[in-house]
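Run folding on both entries below.
>entry_1
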Amino acid sequence: MENSLTISENLKSAIRIAQAFAKENKNEKIGVSHILRALMHREAGLHDFLKAIGKDPGYIAEWAE
């Protein structure tokens, strides 16, 4: 049986955004803070989910900064 991994468009977007944050900060590698910030970006989808469950995405994004 072949093991394949399907990456959602939201995840692909989050990875691209995290790479951009790392490059912007002159980091060679993507770190946890880059990933969290990327996930908080509206394109990644977590922002809307957090709002739907009554959490403040702005606070989390600011903390990741």
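>entry_2
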Amino acid sequence: MVIVVDDDFRVREALESLLKSAEFSSVAFSSAEDLLESGSFAEASCVITDVRMPGMQGLELQRRIKREYPKLPVIVITGHRDEQTRQRALAEGAAVVLYKPLDPNDLLRAVNSAMSDSEKDI
């Protein structure tokens, strides 16, 4: 299952629709806090998170995921081209950083690649 975390309803809906069309099961959350309270990590195979969100930011969510589920791939998405943030995300274990507006094919390739790489680590 692919978990999507983004505070923008349209982005969540678009990503869920894209993932469904590619035959991935997914669940979406509007905040990092909602995800952390959900108990959904047991079924997760990949997390896609936005960087800038109210409350807990995406990079803090990524750190928490990597601390508790080090093999769970995290794809970071952002609408802000900030090289420092990109470098931080990658240094802290992000599989990839993608910029909005997202190219659907790039995102699906990233999800497939991240999930494939994480299966090799098992």
